């Protein structure tokens, strides 16, 4: 029975990772009707609700997941981060920041949590703090987020009118595989700003 339960839970996680929200929601609800206290399944159901903009249901199920998960670990951090995303989407940036920080406190070596805190601080105009978080991602030797971290760090530096440093970051983002078109626009923008300043 336990082997079958784990297989079904794995199918829910796979549906989420493959962006099959409708299918994933249906199999997660069916699963939870049989295993109503499975916090892990609730986390993935909540994230799939968020993908289709059903934020109220997502918030409700994620908060329920937190009550049903152990007080530490990967899955609780995932739930905290998902709640941060929901509040960010709703424009409630302070609450989003609080949830993102909880995720980071739970998993301080996870670059995704540093990235999320940096992004929410940047949105709120706290460029110095955002810069620190993006730099912490770029300093992680095995970060899979270096393309995004350098892109966002470049944008923060651009906001601080540190154009040469921003240009360096955009170029580094390219070396890590960032979207060429997006980076080209950023590079053009800061080069034009530098040209105006130096002419």
TrEMBL record:
Q: Gene3D superfamilies, per this entry?
A: Tetratricopeptide repeat domain
Which SMART domains does the record associate with it?
TPR
SUPFAM superfamilies listed in its UniProt record = TPR-like
Per UniProt, the keywords (alphabetical) are: TPR repeat
InterPro entries cross-referenced by the UniProt entry: TPR-like_helical_dom_sf (IPR011990), TPR_rpt (IPR019734)
Q: Does the keyword Cell membrane apply?
A: no
Q: Where is the signal peptide?
A: none
Q: Does the keyword Hydrolase apply?
A: no
Question: Looking at the record's lineage, which domain of life comes first?
Answer: Bacteria
TPR repeats by residue range? 39-72, 77-110, 147-180
The protein's name: Uncharacterized protein
């Amino acid at each position: 029975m336990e082997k079958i339960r784990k297989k079904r839970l794995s199918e829910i996680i796979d549906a989420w990772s493959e962006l099959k929200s409708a299918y994933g929601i249906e199999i997660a609800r069916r699963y939870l009707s049989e295993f109503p206290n499975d916090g892990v399944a609730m986390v993935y159901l909540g994230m799939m609700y968020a993908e289709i903009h059903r934020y109220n249901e997502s918030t409700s199920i994620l908060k329920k997941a937190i009550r049903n998960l152990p007080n530490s670990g990967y899955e609780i951090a995932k739930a905290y981060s998902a709640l941060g995303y929901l509040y960010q989407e709703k424009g409630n940036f302070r609450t989003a920041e609080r949830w993102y920080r909880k995720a980071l406190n739970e998993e301080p070596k996870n670059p995704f949590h540093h990235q999320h805190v940096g992004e929410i601080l940047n949105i709120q105009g706290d460029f110095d703090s955002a810069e620190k978080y993006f730099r912490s991602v770029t300093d992680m030797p095995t970060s899979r987020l270096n393309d995004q971290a350098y892109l966002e760090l470049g944008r923060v530096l651009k906001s601080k009118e540190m154009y040469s440093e921003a240009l360096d970051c955009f170029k580094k983002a390219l070396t890590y595989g960032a979207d060429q078109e997006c980076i080209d626009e950023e590079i053009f923008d800061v080069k034009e700003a530098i040209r105006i300043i130096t002419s």
